[in-house]
């Protein structure tokens, strides 16, 4: 009697474990008839447990309740299977199934376990957030740069931000150098925010976008009656408007050479003269200039004044391109993803393969290209997970061999990219084999090797 009670208690405990498991658990016979399942497994099928217990897995697969079926593949192949299944409700699950044999070696049961990929990705996101918190702690311990919202893990950018912090407190003009899209305007804003002028205006003028005929009046303004159709009271220029604050002159290399002398006078004398008057006005403006050009070469070619170059080049800061600070790619990716998800009220995530591609991509457009791409993906991708096929075509088959890689290593990298991408799309070695025209055993070996 006592043994019976113990057995009943053990059976009850096992039933509770079965029922309250986070994974879906399904048991079928060798003909794929459902014998037992828990609520989680039934929910993946979109059926009640009572309905599911009257069904056959093969029939459900034919009717499109899920595809492909791990149970059916185990019955066909006779060995354990791990695949990605798509359910009738559009959900993706990670399914593992294995056969159960009797003492004579006959298959009598198939047991499968399924886990919602959304949950797996959420766990991965939680791990990433924990890693970010850990990295934040490490940054604090190791004095990694984090000023005014600009975070860097790369040594190159940390050196740049150290210069920014030092120069920001000095009331001196600054020249920012770097490729298009590296974030020169963001650095200019940081310098302003860290300076004593942070409560004063911050203005931006792009010398490359204004017509040459308008740059002078935009910078220095004009007196009343100077232009037909102009404001009879005249117009203030940006130098006068920005008085007391900071003026960011982007693309300074595009400033017409006849205006470079006037700019030099402003920088040296802290005075300027509006168009149409001989009266000099005193100003107190900090000028931050930026260019993606080689100004020294422009000086040699006669398109940029030598004296202005030397005046601007007192405190130059070079911002490294993104390709030279790979450590910053992931932190920037997560930041932009979080920002755009919030803006568009979405919960988009990037697949591991996409993240790997981001790390190997050259980013010729630098931080701006990364930010714009992530915004585009958040807006246009309907699935919660961005996959390789969602990326621009030129990024989908990208391979950037290192200088010391041999040809076999390069070919191995290409094969890895192809196998990983196809398995991500298809979810089974059988379909990968079909697409590549190789045997399933060869596809399985490659998937095991690379994933």
Question: Would you write up a description of this structure?
Answer:
This protein is an alpha/beta fold. Helices cover 48% and strands 17% of the residues. The protein is built from 20 helices and 19 strands. The strands form six sheets. Strands 2-1-6-5-4-3 form a six-stranded antiparallel beta sheet. Strand 1 (24-29) and strand 2 (34-37) form a beta hairpin. Helix 7 crosses helix 8, helix 18 (407-426) crosses helix 19 and helix 19 (429-436) crosses helix 20 (440-450). The longest helix is centred in the N-terminal third of the chain and has 25 residues, at 117-141. It is elongated, with a radius of gyration of 32 Å. It starts with a helix and ends with a helix. The model is unreliable at 137-144 (pLDDT under 50).
Descriptive keywords:
451 residues, alpha/beta, five-stranded parallel beta sheet, 20 helices, 19 strands
Secondary structure class reads alpha/beta
Distance between the termini: 53 Å
Low-confidence residue ranges: 137-144
Radius of gyration, taken over Cα atoms and rounded to an integer in Å: 32 Å
């Amino acid at each position: 009697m006592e043994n019976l009670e113990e057995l009943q208690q053990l059976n009850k405990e096992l039933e509770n474990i079965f029922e309250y498991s986070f994974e879906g658990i399904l048991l079928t016979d060798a003909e794929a008839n459902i014998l037992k399942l828990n609520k989680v497994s039934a929910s993946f099928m979109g059926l009640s447990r009572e309905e599911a217990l009257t069904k056959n897995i093969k029939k459900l697969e034919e009717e499109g309740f899920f595809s492909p079926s791990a149970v059916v593949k185990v019955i066909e192949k006779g060995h354990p299977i791990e695949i990605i299944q798509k359910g009738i409700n559009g959900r993706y699950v990670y399914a593992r199934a294995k056969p159960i044999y009797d003492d004579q070696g006959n298959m009598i049961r198939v047991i499968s376990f399924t886990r919602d990929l959304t949950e797996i990705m959420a766990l991965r996101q939680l791990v990433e957030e924990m890693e970010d918190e850990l990295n934040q702690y490490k940054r604090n311990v190791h004095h990694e740069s984090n000023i005014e919202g600009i975070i860097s893990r790369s040594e190159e950018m940390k050196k740049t931000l150290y210069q920014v912090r030092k120069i920001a407190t000095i009331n001196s003009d600054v020249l920012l150098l770097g490729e298009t899209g590296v974030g020169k305007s963001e650095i200019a804003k940081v310098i302003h925010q860290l300076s004593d002028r942070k409560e004063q205006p911050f203005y931006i003028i792009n010398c490359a976008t204004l017509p040459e005929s308008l740059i002078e009046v935009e910078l220095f303004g004009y007196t009343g009656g100077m232009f037909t159709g102009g404001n009879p009271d005249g117009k203030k220029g940006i130098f006068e408007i920005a008085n007391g604050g900071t003026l960011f002159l982007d693309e300074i290399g595009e400033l017409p050479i006849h205006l470079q002398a006037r700019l030099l006078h402003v920088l040296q004398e802290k005075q300027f003269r509006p168009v149409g008057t001989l009266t000099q006005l005193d100003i107190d403006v900090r000028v931050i200039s930026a260019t993606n050009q080689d100004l020294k070469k422009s000086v040699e070619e006669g398109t940029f004044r030598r004296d202005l170059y030397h005046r601007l080049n007192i405190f130059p800061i070079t911002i490294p391109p993104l390709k030279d600070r790979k450590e910053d790619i992931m932190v920037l990716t997560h930041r932009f993803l979080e920002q755009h998800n919030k803006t568009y009220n979405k919960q988009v995530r990037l697949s591991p393969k996409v993240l790997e591609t981001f790390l190997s991509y050259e980013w010729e457009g630098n931080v701006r290209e990364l930010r714009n791409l992530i915004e585009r993906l958040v807006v246009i991708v309907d699935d919660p997970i961005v996959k390789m096929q969602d990326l621009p075509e030129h990024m989908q088959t990208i391979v950037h061999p290192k200088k010391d890689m041999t040809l076999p290593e390069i070919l191995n990298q290409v094969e890895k990219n192809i196998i990983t991408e196809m398995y991500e799309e298809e979810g089974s070695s059988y379909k990968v084999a079909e697409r590549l025209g190789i045997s399933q055993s060869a596809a399985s070996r490659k998937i095991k090797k690379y994933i």
